[in-house]
Amino acid sequence: MDTQVLSKLWAKSDGTTIREHTDKLLENLKLLQQLYGDLIENALDPEEREIFWKALELACEYHDYGKMHCWFQKKVGNPNLKPCKLPYRR
Fold first, then answer.
1. How far is CA 17 from CA 3, 27, 89, in A?
2. pTM, whole model, 2 decimals?
3. Measured between alpha carbons, how far is residue 40 from residues 9, 18, 48, 56, 81 in Å?
4. Please, what is the average pLDDT of the chain?
5. What percent of the chain has pLDDT over 90?
6. Domain spans of the chain?
7. For residue 89, what pLDDT band results from cuts at 50, 70 and 90?
8. How many Å from the N-terminal Cα to the C-terminal Cα in the chain?
């Protein structure tokens, strides 16, 4: 996803952007891996270890992308919001 877009859209009503929030979550994932990585990996089958960390990284990256929707942005008060278009109805 375009970093510029994620840097303008909000994840929280305090103005925290989706990019800021996601980057913080990715930092926390690295900390989790540093502090508890061996313990977690010992609970996994060897062939699952790499995919486990990659799956967590992807989950962290994409978990808030639904917040890009203009109605969510309106709800959190983002002043950078473009007007929402209503879906076409017959």
1. 11, 15, 32
2. 0.84
3. 34, 28, 11, 12, 41
4. 92
5. 80
6. 3-75
7. low
8. 33
